[in-house]
Amino acid sequence: MIDALTLDQLRTFVTVVDSGSFRSGAARLSRVQSAVSHAIANLEAELGLALFDRTGHRPVLTGEGKALLANARDILLRVDAMRARARGLGEGVELELSLVVDTLFPVAWVGEALRTMRQDYPSVAIRLAFEPLGGPLTALLAGRSTLAVITGENFRDARVVLQGLSSIEIVAVAAAGHPLATRIDDQAIEVAELADHLQIVQVDPTTLSQGRDFGVLSPQTCRVGSQDTKHAMILAGLGWGRLPAWQVERDLREGRLVRLHTKDLGRHARAGTQAYLAHRLDEPLGPAARAFGRAIEDIAAA
User: Fold this and answer.
1) Where would you find the membrane-spanning parts of this chain (predicted)?
2) How far, in Å, CA of 36 to CA of 68, rounded?
3) Which of 178, 180, 248, 297 has the fewest CB atoms lying closer than 10 Å?
C-alpha cells in the first residue's frame, strides 16, 4: 500500500537516479548494492509500477519513474526544510527576521547581508521594508520590526540600541537640462539661487519629524512620498534635490544628472550622514538577527 512508503525509499530512489546506477547509489549512501536494490524493489511494489527498466547495462527510468521523480524530490525537499526549521526552533532560531531600512542606506548591502545570513539560517523567513526618516525607528518602537537601519542623528530613543555602521554620502543634483546644471564647475551656487528653483523633498510618513524640515533650502518644494519618486522627479528636470551618492552614481557617470556645487550643502556639495543598526533594548536578538548584524557590519566596513 502507498501508505507504507518511507522517506528512506524515496531518498534511495532519488540517489540512484542522481548517481546513475544502483552501484553508485549504494556507494553514495554507504550501503551494499543489494540493500539499495531491495529498497527500490519494495518501493516499486508499494507503488504498483516499475520505476526503472533493468534490461540494459544500466537501469533507465521508465516513463512512470520520470513522472514520479519530481514528486519524490519535492517530498524530500519539504521534509528537509521541516527538519531544518525544527532544528532551528530547538536552537532558538527565529521563524522570521523583520527588518526596516532607511531609504538612504544602500539596498545592495542589505541584500548581500541577508544572503550571508541565510547561508546559516535558510529556514528563517524575511520581511523587509524600506522607509524614510522616522519610519525605521517607528517600526522598531511599534514592534513591526526586529532590526532597523537608521540614518542621521534626528531619530533617537532611549529604548533603542544603536550600533554605528558607516557614513552615507549625500549629494545635491539636478537633471542635465536644469538651469542650475548649466553653471560652470568652479562657480559656486549661492543659496539664494537655489531658493529660486523648486526643491524635491521627501516627506516623513511618521509624526516623529512633524513641523521640521531636514535640508530644505527653497521655499518652493515638491514633497513626495518615496525616494524613488524623488529620484524620478529630479531626473525629469522638475527640480533639484539631495540623494545618496550610491543611488545617483550611474546617472552622474552617464550624464543624466549633474552635481550642484554649493557651499551651503556641505564641502564640495557633499554631506555625510551616519547609518546605525538598531534594535530594541528589551528585545534580545536571535541567532539570525545577530548573523545579519555581523554581515552588514562587515559589508559597511569594507
Assistant:
1) none
2) 18
3) 297
